Amino acid sequence: MFEALSDKLGGVFDRLRRRGALSEADIGEALREVRLALLDADVALPVVRDFILKVRERAVGAEVLSSVTPGQQVVKIVNDVLIEALGGEGAVPINLNAAAPVPILMVGLQGSGKTTTTGKLALRFRERLRKKVLLASLDTQRPAAQLQLQQLAEQAQVASLPIIPGQTPVQIATRAMDTARREGFDIVILDTAGRLAIDEDLMNEVKQVRAVSNPAETLLVVDAMTGQDAVNTSKAFNDAVGVTGIVMTRMDGDARGGAALSMRFVTGAPIKLVGVGEKQDALEDFHPERVAGRILGMGDIVGLVEKVSETVDQADAERLAKRMMSGKFDLDDLASQLNQISKMGSLSGILGMLPGVGKIKDQLANANIDNKMIKRQGAIISSMTKKERKNPDMIKASRKKRIAAGSGVTVADVNKLLKQFDDMSTMMKRMNKLGQKGLMRQGMSALMPQRQMPGGRRPF
User: Fold this and answer.
1) Which of 29, 213, 268, 367 is the most buried (most CB within 10 A)?
2) Is the pTM here over 0.85, yes or no?
């Protein structure tokens, strides 16, 4: 997400930082490039105008032009205006401040990921908030839409409203609210029908459902990949039914990201959640300041730490750390470590949250980072016997051939994994030998492989 915009802005700001003293003409030239970058990223024209105006007003001031680091000051101003455009500091939570059962209305066009997002939201409420959730499909237009939501409810381990053929969306919504009150549900999520395009029938239907359910939240689900069309859709739904929050799907797939930058300006409603993958737990809070940081190449360390804390089992991680430090690390432990990394998502996604990674993007691309590598390595370890995993030294040529055949890889892949494990084991042994004081004294260089010079002497 935002890859193209981040690249272009990064180039503009690198040139600004190198110039030292700045004139109004320098800032004007930079802002012209920023304007073009935003338009290329599919940001709505009124949003671009407002953005550039705000930056210009703050940047062409005595405190910036006479600053010791004017280029850095301009970057800070752009960062602040970006955060404002995206919705301000901090994530905006889903509003559940209403008497139970709290109704949440899901609206949007067909194909935006509305039904899938409904299932993700249900899982989120059940797991994070321990809420009793009822899902109800009001989509009588699309074949099997109600069955799809029923299946998603089963996957999320929440209840779904029994299907009664022939009922209208308004009748289904009324029955859902009655059932929820009677059976003690905390939250009811109403998944409305979508259309391929906005029409009068769709809007009338949503208005009627809204009238009978009186939702605490009306969440508009939009596909970030549709760019400017997503902005037009948001404006139409907001004008018709009053959107209280936006959920953007496929945020992991759009390199431009202009729709996200336009949403708050066009609707006045905050982006509350973003879909970042196909899995049912791939739904995250939207943090404007973190997104702005990633656009400007500052990374998202807080987000990375949160991702680690959510996906990594602390007890398992501590057990692994103790085994590694004691020198008892084996291939079963490596498999456990690989499994923890795979839970965090793609390697490129994890790297994208680190500061400054954008500047070495080309090098990373040339490094051919393979997101399937972890699964492949896990398969190699699974093809080994218990004895082989405990004692990798016994894995010789014939065993390597068997392991490669069993995991669908080459012997070279098996050798790579064993070399990686051997390097890690050597480093762990050095850490254990040095101890904390020795490591602090000698630094990370003490863990690096020691090269031999001619005559058997070490270089240092």
Assistant:
1) 213
2) no
